[in-house]
Design a protein that fits this description.
The protein is mostly helical and 240 residues long. It has helices at 2-9, 15-37, 48-80, 84-89, 95-128, 133-163, 167-183, 189-192, 208-239. Helix 3 runs antiparallel to helix 5 (95-128) and helix 5 (95-128) packs antiparallel against helix 6 (133-163). It is elongated and about 60 Å long. The two termini are 26 Å apart.
Length: 240
């Protein structure tokens, strides 16, 4: 019920078109890069997916996270506008269900945009390299890995948006977090655990044990942020 209600809420906000447009914009990045500078990549000794991800994933990820931050702010702006969230709290449902309903919708949209971007990488692999069965497997693994690692930033963005009644405050905090993540060295494991830095990791070319550690860290962060949100809502409600 909470998920279907969230879908109805965002119909009038432009949330879905914004995500689809953002996903298409990110998907255009590798196509444009290969069209303009293909000679820089065709001679490299690596798999097509690793070449394409190394060349384009940083920009694609930044667009994805900025889209998530803006989407989270938009989702909670509709709740805080005209004190709609106070009326929601009078209903016989936990306020945390509101958060997890938004999380479910955000996770669905993250899946959609990453599918669009995976199709773009597959097209580039087909057009400029050789799209073999092994390349298909690597694309699926890479974007499944990317999907898991992007969830902590989605949870974190929604947590920030739920805590700030002013949309511009949560948007500003989110943008600062994104640009902080871009300045952190991706090779440093500890610093890369920052929720907004995790999505910049690439599966292709990463050691198996390192990739497993990042996946475990992502699951742990999802759990921690979810618990923190539930506790935050309880504390805030006790002071209202």
């Amino acid at each position: 019920m909470s998920f279907s209600l969230e879908c109805k809420k965002v119909k009038r906000t432009g949330f879905t078109p914004a995500f689809l447009s953002g996903g298409l914009l990110a998907a255009i990045v590798p196509v444009l890069n290969m069209t303009v500078r293909s000679e820089n990549y065709l001679g490299l000794h690596a798999t097509p997916v690793q070449i394409l991800m190394d060349a384009n994933w940083q920009m694609m990820t930044m667009l994805n996270i900025l889209l998530i931050v803006a989407g989270a702010c938009l989702m909670y702006h509709t709740e805080y506008a005209d004190n709609a969230i106070r009326r929601m709290c009078t209903l016989p449902m936990k306020e945390s269900r509101l958060f997890f309903g938004k999380v479910t919708l955000m996770m669905l949209m993250c899946t959609v945009i990453l599918i669009i971007e995976a199709a773009s990488v597959a097209f580039c692999s087909y057009h400029w390299f050789e799209l073999t069965h092994e390349v298909w497997i690597e694309i699926m693994k890479s974007f499944g890995y990317a999907l898991l690692l992007i969830f902590p930033s989605a949870f974190g963005s929604l947590f920030i948006a739920s805590a700030c009644k002013n949309m511009w405050v949560s948007l500003g905090i989110g943008v600062v977090c994104v640009f902080t993540a871009t300045m952190l060295p991706t090779k440093n494991f500890v610093l890369s655990l920052f929720p907004f830095a995790l999505p910049f990791q690439i599966f292709a070319g990463t050691a198996e044990n390192t990739a497993c550690n990042f996946m475990i860290a992502a699951l742990a962060e999802i759990l921690i942020i979810g618990i923190a949100e539930v506790l935050f809502l309880k504390v805030r409600r006790s002071f209202e």
